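Tokens for chain A. Residues wanted.
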């Protein structure tokens, strides 16, 4: 089976983890935390990094740091990983949904304005599958309406909007280092920011908010979202190879594009002229029977995954978005799936996958004629 994604641990991961174990620094203090935070923030063009236990907790921490809570509204795309919506709900605020664009699958920047109310506090654009959102438009709207912007860049390590890294545009940006993300720490996350005040507040909130003067006196209701030194050691080793890992993703996409260009019955992912897409996952839309298509690939040893199910369709949010319509998200979610996209994919594997795709489409076509 060719898996959709596998981590690529070929650098200093083992050496750094061994160092943690041998030196006894295995919990959330130790040199790798700081090195990973500083290194990753600086890679993104930001001043401060604060590690967390996951992308989900990074999002929650970002919202808590900005003081968002009950009575507030936060604008998110309906088409996203559920973590974006969960983080908003954890704070007591209400997620307000916006439909997505048909080409990039990202939040439709032109449909945000109609969702802004006097309760709106923030917008969370999500750079889906590695393609950046239209940040200019989003930042302008946020500025005009005094809203915070929190990028969910969990899928967009190294992606660029108009030559600047995703994660560098917002008050706070959030990353995930889950095993299938472009760089991983096993489980883990980070927020990055240029604001010293936000960074300090986030550091407090992620570690139970001990008072500066007196440990075990707590100034806020806070969290334990501390990353371990061991995870940071893996993250740092991955960070040392990030340019290579991003380039491998982009090289995979080039081969897929070459092989599949012009194929009837599927739509390939896009890269806008102003964007550097890092193709976290190489997603396609299928015109015909998606389940049959996926079964055909699976029978030939090719693993695929369906796209996210939009938030307005989620059973856990039943009743929250009644009567709302998000037609682009419905369509993309229904037709979308992603192909194997890991950094370690080989050219021959991609060529094989593409031949299976053509075969599946051919079968589908001939069965329709019959
Ligand atoms: C993976 C992901 C998350 C959550 O990250 P975890 O580390 O799995 O908690 C959040 N948002 C998006 C867009 C993601 O892809």
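Reply:
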């Amino acid at each position: 089976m060719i898996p959709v994604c596998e981590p690529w641990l070929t650098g200093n991961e083992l050496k750094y983890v061994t160092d943690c174990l041998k030196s006894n620094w295995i919990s959330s203090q130790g040199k790798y935390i700081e090195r990973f935070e500083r290194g990753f923030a600086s890679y993104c063009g930001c001043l401060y990094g604060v590690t967390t236990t996951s992308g989900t907790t990074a999002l929650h921490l970002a919202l808590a740091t900005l003081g968002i809570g009950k009575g507030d509204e936060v604008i998110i795309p309906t088409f996203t990983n559920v973590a974006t919506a969960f983080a908003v709900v954890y704070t007591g605020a209400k997620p307000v949904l916006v439909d997505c664009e048909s080409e990039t699958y990202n939040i439709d920047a032109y449909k945000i304005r109609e969702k802004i109310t006097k309760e709106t506090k923030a917008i969370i654009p999500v750079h889906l599958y590695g393609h950046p959102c239209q940040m200019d438009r989003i930042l302008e709207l946020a500025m005009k309406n005094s809203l915070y912007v929190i990028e969910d860049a969990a899928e967009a390590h190294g992606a660029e909007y108009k030559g600047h890294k995703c994660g560098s545009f917002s008050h706070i940006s959030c990353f995930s280092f889950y095993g299938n993300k472009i760089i991983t720490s096993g489980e883990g996350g980070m927020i990055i920011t240029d604001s010293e005040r936000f960074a300090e507040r986030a550091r407090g909130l992620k570690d139970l908010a001990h008072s500066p003067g007196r440990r075990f006196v707590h100034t806020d209701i806070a969290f334990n979202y501390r990353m371990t030194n061991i995870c940071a050691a893996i993250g740092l080793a991955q960070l040392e190879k990030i340019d290579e890992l991003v380039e491998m993703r982009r090289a995979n996409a080039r081969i897929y594009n070459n092989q599949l260009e012009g194929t009837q019955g599927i739509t390939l992912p896009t890269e806008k002229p102003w964007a550097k897409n890092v193709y976290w996952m190489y997603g396609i839309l299928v015109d015909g029977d998606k389940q049959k298509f996926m079964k055909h690939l699976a029978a030939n040893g090719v693993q695929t995954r369906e796209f996210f199910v939009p938030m307005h369709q989620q059973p856990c949010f039943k009743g929250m978005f009644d009567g709302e319509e998000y037609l682009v998200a419905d369509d993309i979610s229904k037709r979308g799936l992603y192909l194997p996209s890991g950094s370690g994919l080989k050219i021959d594997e991609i060529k094989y996958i593409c031949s299976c795709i053509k075969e599946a489409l051919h079968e589908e076509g001939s069965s329709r004629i019959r």
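The longest strand covers residues 48-52. The longest helix spans residues 347-369.
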